[in-house]
Amino acid sequence: MSERFDIITPSGERITPDVATTVGHSLTAELTEFPVEDGLPVNDALRRGPRVLPVSMLFSTWRNDKNDNGNLVPDAQGPQSAFEQFLSLHKRGEAVTIVTRREVLPNMVLVAFNAEDNADTEQLLRCDATFKELRIASSRLIQIPPKRRSAAQRHRGRRKGAAAAEAKKPAEAARKQKLRAEILAEAKRQLGLK
To answer: What pTM was estimated for this model as a whole?
Structure first.
């Protein structure tokens, strides 16, 4: 069964296989190992993983004509062109939008690509690709005004600070005087003076 499948890049370029043979829709989640309090919502204990989309595709040397009336026209560059588009997509590493017959998936990134060449697939590009959802978070910047101190708190703080500084002055002066005396005594000792 063929699936509808389109890859749309941010620049609007489309990669459309002739056949998407399988498209897997994978959802995962982790549930906490810790007990959840009775009555609390379970979704708070659940952490959802990114979407993963494995796809198997075929690109051939035949394409629908531009009028889309079901007629096939030769497209010798089809498989090679598709291969180069996937290489470019992998190199750029940008998020694409994927359209399947079930849903539209924005912010998907190519994380794996595998193409095989053999004698049976000479005119085809048979490939497997895996896309993974790029989850984008945003945060809000909230400015909280600084807490204003009352006049009494500001005045009380100054008094405590001023009193502490005044208390330190005699001790600081005594320490400096003792240090000067020690330096002078050492200098006299070295010069041989008493």
So the answer is: 0.62
Q: What three-state secondary structure class fits 155?
A: helix
Each residue of 81-123: pLDDT tens digit? 889 999 999 999 999 999 998 899 999 999 999 998 777 767 7
Phi, psi (deg, nearest 5) at residue 45: -95, 5
Is residue 5 a contact partner of residue 17, using CB atoms and an 8 Å limit? yes
> Is 178 or 169 the better-scoring residue by pLDDT?
178
DSSP string, 5-48: EEEE-TT--EE--SEEEEE--B--EEE-SS---TTS-GGGGEEE
The hierarchical CATH code for the domain 5-30+42-133 is: 2.40.30
Which sequence spans correspond to the domains of the chain?
5-30+42-133, 152-194
Quote the tokens at residue 190.
């070295």
Give the N- to C-terminal CA distance of the chain in Å, as an integer.
110
Residue 136 CB-half CA count within 13 A: 5
Q: How many distinct helices (H) and strands (E) make up the chain?
A: 2, 11
φ and ψ of 111, to 5 deg: -110, -15
One-character DSSP codes across 84-129:
HHHHHHHHHT--EEEEESS-EEEEEEEEEEEEE--GGGTT-EEEEE
CA distance 73 to 65: 6
Cα angle: 111, vertex 114, 118; to 5 degrees: 175
